[in-house]
Amino acid sequence: MGMQENLRAQLIKQLPSEVVENVDTTGNLYYACPTCKRPVALSQNNCTSCNQALSWNNVRKDAERSGQKRGRIEFDLPLDFTVGNCRKCPLSYIGRSGEDNVYECPLGSRNACKIKVF
Ligand SMILES: [Zn+2]
Question: C-alpha 116: how far from its chain's center?
């Protein structure tokens, strides 16, 4: 491939392209890169093999039709927050448990904190 074609291919890969739904030999559904056809992890922004930018719009529409969607919120955490530390969590609120005040989790995850720190 000449320099010019190479550059062109690189630029094209930066345009998000719809992932392809595939079924493996054991019947499991997986998603593949539309350019190199290798499997990609769900919601990955770029193919790890060929760096093709990936778009998940069709998959998302499918998920909505099947009644399954996932949500994610991002928010700032105090530096001394650790997973499961409701006292430092900005989402928690004070609730009552008998005579005691307790930190309640609005996500209902007081004993199984689902927050991922990054
Ligand atoms: Zn690829």
Answer: 11
The pTM (predicted TM-score) of the whole model is: 0.49
The span from the CA of 20 to the CA of 63, in Å, is 15
Please tell me the distance from the alpha carbon of residue 92 to that of residue 111, in angstroms, as a whole number: 12
In the reported structure, the alpha carbon of residue 54 is separated from the centroid of ligand 1 by a whole-number distance in angstroms of: 9
Q: ∠ CA 113-94-117 to the nearest 5 degrees?
A: 30
Cα(48) to centroid of ligand 1, in Å? Answer: 7
What's the 10 CA to ligand 1 centre distance in angstroms?
12
Say how many Å lie between the CA of residue 59 and the centre of ligand 1: 17
Span 40-90, pLDDT tens digits:
998 799 999 999 999 998 887 777 777 777 778 889 999 999 999 999 999
Question: What's the 60 CA to ligand 1 centre distance in angstroms?
Answer: 20
Domain boundaries, the chain: 3-65, 72-118
Residue 18: partners with Cβ closer than 8 Å, 6 or more residues away: 34, 54, 55, 56, 57, 58
